[in-house]
Amino acid sequence: MTSLLPQGFRDRLPPVADATARLEQAVLGAAFQHGYERADPALAEFEQGLAGRLKSATAQDAVRFVDPVSQRTLAIRPDITAQIGRIAATRMGHHPRPVRLSYAGPVLRLRASQLSPERELLQMGCELIGLDTVAAAAEIVGVAVEALEAAGVRDISIDFTLPDLVGILANGPLPIDPAQIAALSERLDAKDAGGVAEIARAYLPLVEAAGPFEAAHHRLCAFDAGGALTSRLDGLWAIAEGLKGRVGLTLDPTERHGFEYQSWLGFSIFASGVRGEIGRGGTYTIVHEDGAEEAAVGFSLYADAIVAAGLGEIDRRRLFVPLGTDPALAAAMRAAGWVTVAALEAGDTPEAQLCTHLLAEGEARAL
Amino acid sequence: MTSLLPQGFRDRLPPVADATARLEQAVLGAAFQHGYERADPALAEFEQGLAGRLKSATAQDAVRFVDPVSQRTLAIRPDITAQIGRIAATRMGHHPRPVRLSYAGPVLRLRASQLSPERELLQMGCELIGLDTVAAAAEIVGVAVEALEAAGVRDISIDFTLPDLVGILANGPLPIDPAQIAALSERLDAKDAGGVAEIARAYLPLVEAAGPFEAAHHRLCAFDAGGALTSRLDGLWAIAEGLKGRVGLTLDPTERHGFEYQSWLGFSIFASGVRGEIGRGGTYTIVHEDGAEEAAVGFSLYADAIVAAGLGEIDRRRLFVPLGTDPALAAAMRAAGWVTVAALEAGDTPEAQLCTHLLAEGEARAL
To answer: What does the entry give for GO biological process (chains A, B) (predicted)?
Structure first.
């Protein structure tokens, strides 16, 4: 069957494709109102440059091919965030900071991840480059929430994490063997109390620190004897303050999965009725070509999960225009907001054209 | 320089990326109002299936890679029209005809064409599958014009051609050696009177047939002694009738380039101020998996050419919100349609954030 698509690829058909496009418009439209202008990075780049800006796991999953023009290897982007960082660091390197950019487009992965079987995904989001302050992070989280609300997503909740938590503690008040940091992080992420105790008993309270935001924040404050986490905890509190009552808030300070390249803040976004997370973000660092580092914060949304949950659905009222109708009348109905579907031959019917209404005697009649 | 992109690839930056997205929304929004719902075909397919539906020249230019999952060769689409045909023939094969679909998305080519140096293009358009009647073709041309008008494109002109003209004449009233048809078509396309005369003197009047629509149509009617072109000429006249006074119309019956897979009708779209054509379309045939053929008609637009000509430009009024402003005030300004850009640190200025207005004492003041 030549109609079958490779595993992990699919066509979006009506009405899903329209719903997806409207979700993108709503999300990027809301971001645009906050000053985030759109960038559309190239779909393919030199593999060497792209790989240098990606986590190694992501770089390995890029589709590669040899370019007959340059005789070099090109890669199709497996992620857009890293491309936005490249643009901010190069062509927009002279632009005053912070730079606010939004994006939406397909990304391609040679292998599916464990979490999702898709190999082509529509990624959309915003990045604020040049700052990763509490104010910058609060703006990014706020824009993500507003963008989702604009797209009709309700009952949003945000789960915060502190990606560099273990590193900060291990290099400060609770020293452990540096070779053990990764293992400890893993066991904390898995909430494996026995495993944590085996490596460093002092970290045990972190196993129980996750939960509803305020209570978890209090537990973490109580744990933070040495004050090494004070700025992070104050920052988290300030960010949460601006969202209280509007979205559900939780804190899972040792959640690590997928936040490998985030610095002090990470967050996952959920919505009722949607399985799994619908987006994520956090603070991170972009590297300029001269090696200089620059702080950034951003979020990405996964459009397909949101649309699959029935959000962003479109109105499919369609008005059937019989053969011989004055074109000016159909145009007037479109100007009034109708979708018109013209009969093009004698046998055509409203039913065949999935129409809900019929244009008769100058009026739209429900069928 | 890792920031350089491969030849033929580029990033769209602000404000070009936003202008491009708005052009897409306007074009597909206008088409949606005529009943064209969106399909988003997969970016990659099995190479074998994709190549079978493309002109061989296009298939050769597809980026290919080996899929580690299926162990088969996949190709990134170099064209979306063929994918829309696949969808109409397979997953939407049971859908009553005609099927109306729209699309917009990137296509990738391993080699640039002679006409354009780009290897990544944004292709958008509409296809009407199941009919290629005069009424169907008139609808498609009309939707193309309306979509471009909705996007702010002015002074549109359409150049019609009859892609199968030479074949029809050669197999009818003006027989020539079948082996000579391609050569004759080429020389007619090049308006090479000497070359045409060498092959078949009877075709010479066609060299002079191109020009403003009505005059060219009259010359072609006078030439059509045998009546072999009557249905085509009547159809062309009916299509043009619906567009008169609204767009410029020309007829170049032997124009062939790029219309190799069109059947009786082809057209190119131009706009004043835009170099080269901004779109094209025509009637063609899609092939089902059982070998059955189905008529179709459609158009594609080239977004980048349109945006490069300054069309679809966006309003960049930006309101600077000083540090410490009540967030509710900024939200009220956004609700009133403003783009707000919040200061996130003390040193930030309206100038640095490319703002045109400043929020002061509850008002937007022009800077």
So the answer is: histidyl-tRNA aminoacylation
The tens place of each residue's pLDDT in chain B, 367 residues long, gives 445 899 999 999 999 999 999 999 999 999 999 999 999 999 999 999 888 887 776 778 899 999 999 999 999 999 999 999 999 999 999 999 999 999 999 999 998 877 678 999 999 999 999 999 999 999 999 999 999 999 999 999 999 999 999 999 998 999 999 899 999 999 999 999 999 999 999 999 999 899 999 999 999 999 876 788 999 999 999 999 999 999 999 999 998 877 878 899 999 999 988 888 999 999 999 988 888 999 999 999 989 989 988 776 677 899 999 999 999 999 999 999 999 999 999 999 999 999 999 999 999 999 9
Pick B10's closest partner by Cβ from A42, A68, A105.
A42
Cβ–Cβ gap B110/A48 under 8 Å: no
Annotated binding residues of B for L-histidine, as ranges?
A: 79-81, 109, 123, 127
Extract the tokens encoding A313: 């659905």
Residues near A361 by beta carbon (within 8 Å), at least 6 away in sequence: none
B111–A6 C-beta distance less than 8 A: no
Measured between beta carbons, the chain B residues lying within 8 angstroms of A64 are: 65
From B20, B42, B327, residue closest to A10, measured CB to CB:
B42
Buried/exposed A210-244: b ≥16 CB within 10 Å, e otherwise? beebeebbebbeebbeeebbeebbebbeebbeebe
The CA-CA-CA angle for residues B226, B230, B232, to 5°, reads 130
Please tell me the class of the B1-151+283-294+306-314 domain: alpha beta
Nearest chain B Cα distance for residue A125, angstroms: 14
Nearest to B52 among A2, A289, A340 (CB): A2
Q: Give, to the nearest 10 degrees, the angle between helix B16-32 and helix B134-150.
A: 140
Rounded Cα distance, A273 and A309, in Å: 6
Is residue B157 within 8 Å of residue B271, measured between CB atoms?
yes
Domain ranges of chain B: 1-151+283-294+306-314, 318-366
Q: What is the CATH number of domain A1-152+307-314?
A: 3.30.930.10
H or E segment and range at residue A188: helix A181-189
- In chain A, positions 126-165, which contact chain B (CB-CB < 8 Å)? 131, 133, 135-136, 139
Contact A340 B35 (CB under 8 A): yes
* Backbone φ, ψ for residue A19 (5° rounding): -60, -40
Structure-token pair, residue A333: 């109905």
Q: What are phi and psi of B339, to 5 degrees?
A: -90, 120
DSSP line for B335-353:
HTT-EEEE--STT--TTTT
Interface test with A, best of B27, B67, B95, B100 (most A CBs within 10 A): B67
- A49 chain-B contacts, CB cut-off 8 A: 2-4
**ipTM for this prediction:** 0.93
Question: To the nearest 5 percent, what fractions of chain A are helix, strand and coil?
Answer: 35, 25, 40
A290 is in an annotated binding site: no
Q: Classify burial at A201, counting beta carbons within 10 Å of its beta carbon; exposed 0-12, middle 13-18, buried 19 or more.
A: exposed
Token readout for B75 is 């190709």
Residue of B311, B36, B55, B8 whose CA lies nearest to A340? B36
CA-closest candidate to residue B243, choices B139, B148, B133, B131? B139
Express each pLDDT in A201-252 by its tens digit: 999 999 989 999 999 999 999 987 688 899 999 999 999 999 999 999 999 9
